[in-house]
Amino acid sequence: MPLAIVGASGSLGFAILKALLDQGLVIASDLILTTSSSAGAQKLQDAALKGAVTRHVNWDDDQGAWEAALQGCDKVFLISSSRIAKDFNDAPLGQGREADHFKALEAAKAVGVEHIYYASLAFANPSKSDVMTAHERTENWLKQNWSGKYTIIREGLYNESWPLYFGHYNIPDDERTEVPIAGDSKISWTSIPDLGMANAIIFAAPSEEWADKTCYLSQSQAHSLNDVAAMISKLKGKDVRVKVVPREEHETFYVQKRGMEEPFVKWWSKSYDALRDNECEIQDPTLELLLGKQSLKPKQMEATVAEMLA
Ligand SMILES: *[C@@H]1O[C@H](CO)[C@@H](O)[C@H](O)[C@H]1NC(C)=O
Ligand SMILES: *[C@@H]1O[C@H](CO)[C@@H](O)[C@H](O)[C@H]1NC(C)=O
């Protein structure tokens, strides 16, 4: 029963692979790992030595190449495309990152894949954030156009992504004491190793257990950006605060004062509208239940911030 991970050398894919093998949830020779680069293939070498098959495919390849990459797989874990620039300037349906996903999914359909596991994101659906648009479109596609089984996993916001939310904070040399953001509320930050473990357990379980389900994988302990500011202040020994400003002011600040690309800033800034609606404080016990099965507890956000500032 071969299982494929699309994007196995990326941070989430690799964490899933590691958990699958370290915990003995599957045997390596049942795994097909796709990667888009030779650096990725290098990273997968250990798994390959244990018997996993590595296949090269990237989002620019045609559907035929994707069919070859997914040939013979029963289950496919699809990690979303990271080509965020495709989403900029309000890309219409079928032109954003979902286009990458649709191609892989059409290929999976053509070669008879039975079960798709899709790594979505832990915002509401529908969301006010543009970050979620490609995920919403892909979730809808799975519900309407996929005839096999599917599982939608809305992945908690990565522990290590806090600088992005925290006013594009520049860890090594950000001297700001006041960081403008366009909205704040609690976020259920989740560490990548914890996500790797929980996704691996879901992926390795009998297909029926998760068929046609949607869940969140998020820590129940949530922290606002204001809370993160307090963590940074403590670690740096100086006061760092967030200042909530209107979205337009936020966009102007990051484009004009910090020299960031406008299409990116505009795409990103609506995430703060989602925060104002409290979209990222997630109440779903799934992550903690799954980690509990392996006698693990989620890692705490304070530790993450400390590790990254160190
Ligand atoms: C499902 O597929 C049809 C035909 O390709 C397409 O028109 C429709 O938009 C798809 N649905 C979704 C939700 O993408
Ligand atoms: C945060 O994420 C990084 C990158 O995956 C990981 O190495 C680290 O252990 C995580 N830290 C905590 C405290 O969860």
Automatic annotation (TrEMBL):
Q: Which domain of life is it from?
A: Eukaryota
Q: Which organism is it from?
A: Friedmanniomyces simplex
Occurrences of domain NmrA-like (ranges): 4-250
Q: Tell me which InterPro entries the record gives.
A: NAD(P)-bd_dom_sf (IPR036291), NmrA-like (IPR008030), NmrA-type_oxidoreductase (IPR052718)
| SUPFAM superfamilies reported for this sequence | NAD(P)-binding Rossmann-fold domains (SSF51735)
At the highest ranks, the source species' classification is: Eukaryota, Fungi, Dikarya, Ascomycota, Pezizomycotina
Name of a matching Pfam family:
NmrA
Gene3D superfamilies, per this entry? NAD(P)-binding Rossmann-like Domain (3.40.50.720), UDP-galactose 4-epimerase, domain 1 (3.90.25.10)
What name goes with this protein? NmrA-like domain-containing protein
